[in-house]
Design a protein that fits this description.
The protein is mainly alpha-helical and about 90 residues long. The protein has one domain. It is about 80% helix and about 0% strand.
Length: about 90
């Protein structure tokens, strides 16, 4: 087996190029995550908030609607506990 200095040069050159490209890819991936993560957190929080708001609105039953209507009418026409039979 002969000693070839060109092979040593190619090995060192390959290691240097591999490390350089690896570091560049790592930096780019870090920047992508740095930008994308807060947006994903905001999107998830916003969807959760909207779902909770919709669920709360759907929990209002017809009875609740009628109770609120009766309460508004009582306030509007001055009915109170004393004359609730009217």
């Amino acid at each position: 087996m002969k000693f070839h200095p060109a092979k040593i040069f190619l090995a060192i050159f390959s290691i240097l190029i591999g490390l350089t490209i690896g570091v560049l890819v790592a930096i780019l991936q870090f920047l992508i995550v740095l930008i994308r993560f807060p947006i994903d957190v905001y999107r998830t929080a916003s969807q959760t908030y909207d779902e909770r708001h919709i669920r709360k609105a759907q929990q209002l039953t017809k009875e609740d609607v009628w109770q609120r209507h009766i309460k508004r009418m009582d306030e509007k026409y001055g009915r109170n506990e004393e004359n609730s039979n009217l």
